[in-house]
Amino acid sequence: MRASALHASKTLAKLAPPLLRAADGAVGAALLPAIVASCKNKSNVLVQTVAIRALVHVLAACGWAEGAAPLPSSFDGETRLFVADFAGKKWRAKASVDSDAERSDVDPCE
After folding, report:
1. What Å distances lie between residue 84 and 4, 20, 36, 66, 67, CA to CA?
2. pLDDT tens for the chain, residues 1 to 110
3. Which residues contact 86 (CB under 8 A, 6 or more apart)?
4. Among residues 68, 73, 78, which one has the least CA distance to residue 35?
5. Burial (CB count <10 Å: 0-12, 13-18, 19+), residue 58
6. Residue 104, domain member (yes or no)
7. Whole-angstrom Cα distance, residue 49 to residue 70?
8. 39, part of any domain
9. Which CA distances in Å does 29 have to 18, 36, 48, 105, 110?
């Protein structure tokens, strides 16, 4: 997934969380496999960093952060394990350092 698509996912999660939660989180669930794959991409640090920020916001918007709501059963095993681990152990730390500064929402590819 490109950094600009990840940025769009993060912006959508921040501006329209009910949209991601609709239909039992169907939109959030559709976004997560690509976001998780980008989080695992160690060859491109920019994409990985943007993906982690997008993941933080999508999990929060869908209510899946810190295990607040059950994950959809539609996730494959690898995505489910990554999201469960991230939501349980790393979400709070990443969310606390996410900046709402003026330039934090600028697409890194522009």
Report:
1. 25, 18, 11, 8, 7
2. 688 888 888 888 888 888 888 887 788 888 888 999 998 888 988 898 899 889 888 888 888 776 666 777 777 788 888 887 777 666 665 665 565 544 455 555 55
3. 39, 55, 59
4. 78
5. buried
6. no
7. 25
8. yes
9. 13, 11, 19, 22, 27
Q: The tokens 């993060």 sit on which residue?
A: 10
Q: Identify which of 40, 29, 33, 38 has the alpha carbon closest to the alpha carbon of residue 7.
A: 38
Identity of the amino acid at 102: E
Domain membership flag for residue 26: yes
Residue numbers of the domain that contains 38: 3-98
The number of distinct structural domains making up the chain is 1
H-helix segments, 1-110: 3-15, 17-39, 45-62, 77-85, 91-97
pTM: 0.75
Q: Residue 103 falls within a domain, yes or no?
A: no
CA of 27: how far to CAs of 6, 9, 19, 69, in Å? 14, 10, 7, 15
